[in-house]
Structures are given as C-alpha cells and as structure tokens.
Amino acid sequence: MLRYVTTNAGKVREAEEYLGDEVSQLDFDYTEVQASDLAPIAAYGAREAHRHAGEPVLVDDAGLFVDGFDGFPGPYSAYVEDTLGVEAVRRLVTRELDDVRAEFRCVLAYCDGEAFDASPDPVDRDDRVAAAAAGAERDDEEREPLPVKLFEGVVRGRIVEARGDGGFGYDPIFEYDGATFAEMDAAEKNGVSHRGRALEKFGEWFAER
Ligand code: ITT
Ligand code: NA
C-alpha cells in the first residue's frame, strides 16, 4: 500500500481525490531539513518516512513563493502561516508590492527502498529537481542512501483579498484564472494546481512501475 506522508488533512483530500484507493495517509512528522528549495526537504523526508514505515511512501512538500519577495515564504510557508498568518501575508503583499504575482510549488518524493531505472526519465525532466535529488543523496554516512524519485508541480497566479472557504492554507488568497483555489472543489483545484500537476507526473510514472 502506498502511504501519503503528511500531517495535513487538506493535502490528503487532494491526493485521495487524484489517486483514489491506491493511497492512504501516513500521519508522520518527518524531519524538515533547512533548505531554500523544496526538493531536498522532500527527499530527506521520504527516506526517513520509508525507514519508519517500511512501505512505499510519497512525501509532499509544498509552499507559496511570492515573486516580489524573492520567493518568500517558500520553504517556510508552514512556519509563516502559523506565525504571521495568511491574512498578514496578503496585507504585506498588497501594501508593499505593485506586482502581486506568486506561485505555488509542490514536490512529491517517492521512496520504496528499491533503485530506479537509471535511463532518462520521460516524465520528470526538470533539471533543477534532478540536481536537487542528486544533492540530496548525501545521507547518513553509515548507510547507502535510499533512492528517491522526485516529481514537481508549479502553478502561477496572483495574491488577492481572501475569497472562498474550500481548500486549506493560502488557498483563499491565491487566484488562478479569475477564481481563488478556495473557490474550487478538490477536483477543480487538482486540474490546475501545483499538487495536481505533481500528482499527474507521479501517477503516470507509478503506473509503469
Ligand atoms: P506536512 O509537512 O505534514 O505535509 P504541512 O502543512 O506542514 O504538512 P508543508 O510543510 O509542505 O506542509 O507546508 C506547506 C505550507 O504551505 C503550509 O502552510 C500549507 O498550508 C501551505 N500549502 C501547501 N500546499 C498548499 C495548497 O495547495 N494550498 C494552500 N496552501 C498550501
Ligand atoms: Na510540514
């Protein structure tokens, strides 16, 4: 059974909407290493979660990157949501910036303890993700690092005054094509979102595995 590793019920809802019965939540709070990029955080987390669970795992690390703030809050999105809060982020953007463009990013990291085919992957060609995966090969020096496969999804939009009560986290202040993510149901959001795009790449690859 594939375990979707997260403490966040909103992420689980979207993963289940996409992957159905193939997946069940593993509520495990893996160690989040400090990095400016999501990929190494997800890769380390996937190794730790697989060692913990002994089953195939998929870790989901995500964040909101505001263009005019050089990507803030990015990998610190959960910390900033807990401390400043979503509404304060919205006010900061509105007051400080003329350009309110932003993007959501999601990196899914898969680990089942087995190695992957070394041939070039037809699905996941993102060089930056591949480079981060290679960098993430550093691990506990006593052991061989477990292989991890990464899938990234990105969606660009704008920060707006909060609308809607669906979704979770920063969804009410993130507008895509005229609607905020909080105004979409899980299926609609998956159709355009960072997580939906990463899940799509993962799903295509996993079906072959
Ligand atoms: P896990 O680490 O246990 O999965 P988390 O909520 O802490 O749960 P992250 O570390 O990936 O997840 O932090 C992501 C932050 O970005 C957090 O504040 C989320 O609310 C927010 N976020 C992630 N995906 C989102 C989405 O699709 N819509 C809105 N906010 C999102
Ligand atoms: Na987290």
TrEMBL record:
<dbReference type="Pfam" id="PF01725">
    <property type="entry name" value="Ham1p_like"/>
</dbReference>
<comment type="similarity">
    <text>Belongs to the HAM1 NTPase family.</text>
</comment>
<dbReference type="GO" id="GO:0016787">
    <property type="term" value="F:hydrolase activity"/>
</dbReference>
<keyword id="KW-0378">Hydrolase</keyword>
<protein>
    <submittedName>
        <fullName>Non-canonical purine NTP pyrophosphatase</fullName>
        <ecNumber>3.6.1.-</ecNumber>
    </submittedName>
</protein>
<dbReference type="InterPro" id="IPR002637">
    <property type="entry name" value="RdgB/HAM1"/>
</dbReference>
<dbReference type="InterPro" id="IPR029001">
    <property type="entry name" value="ITPase-like_fam"/>
</dbReference>
